[in-house]
Amino acid sequence: QDARQALTGADTERAAVSAPDLLGGVWELTPGRYHGLAASTLLLLDEPEGAASEAAQALALGAAAPAGERHLYAELLVRTDQAAAYLRQPDLDGAVGALRPVLDLTADMRTEPLLQQLRRLRRTLTLPQFADTPVARGLQEEIETYDRDALPRQITS
User: Fold this and answer.
1) Is residue 80 within 8 Å of 118, Cβ to Cβ?
2) What is the pLDDT of residue 25?
3) How distant, in Å, are the alpha carbons of 30, 31, 41, 82, 118 from that of 20?
4) Count of alpha carbons within 13 Å of 154, Cβ hemisphere only?
């Protein structure tokens, strides 16, 4: 209940904003980042439809932003949340589409937060509703390879 009230309050505050966030940097809360955080919150509240919708909004706003205002890793993490939301609906094809830009990253761009999110998704793909599907097995293997080949993993090994 508290999280739902916080989302409602944040949405009300966001709607009243008339000037850009002056703080900037990693603490800047652009509209795209706001919707990404809302997606994460709705996912935690087990509202996958709302989470997928908020994630789509975040990604659309990010894509429309000027290059200097985009937050690549925030967008990539939103994609992992969007994939999780799709898996809860269950929409395996939607999850694969959401993850494709993440899975296409070169090894040197794979951060630990992305790896952690993908490990969670990989565990979800082992649930009975997905376990026997070739698409889910292929995605599990791709995530395993992605994790194994990631530069942070190579450095610590």
Assistant:
1) yes
2) 65
3) 8, 10, 23, 26, 33
4) 10
Band of residue 155 on the pLDDT scale cut at 50, 70, 90: low
pLDDT, the chain, mean: 89
Whole-prediction pTM: 0.87
Residues contacting 140, CB < 8 A, separation 6+: 122, 125, 126
Q: Sign of the C-alpha dihedral, residues 110, 113, 119, 120?
A: negative
Q: How far apart are CA 10 and CA 1, in angstroms?
A: 14
In three-state secondary structure terms, 1 is coil
For residue 28, the SS3 value is coil
- The alpha-helical segments, DSSP class H, found in 48-109 are 48-64, 72-88, 92-103
Residue pLDDT, tens place only, 122-143:
999 999 999 889 999 999 999 9
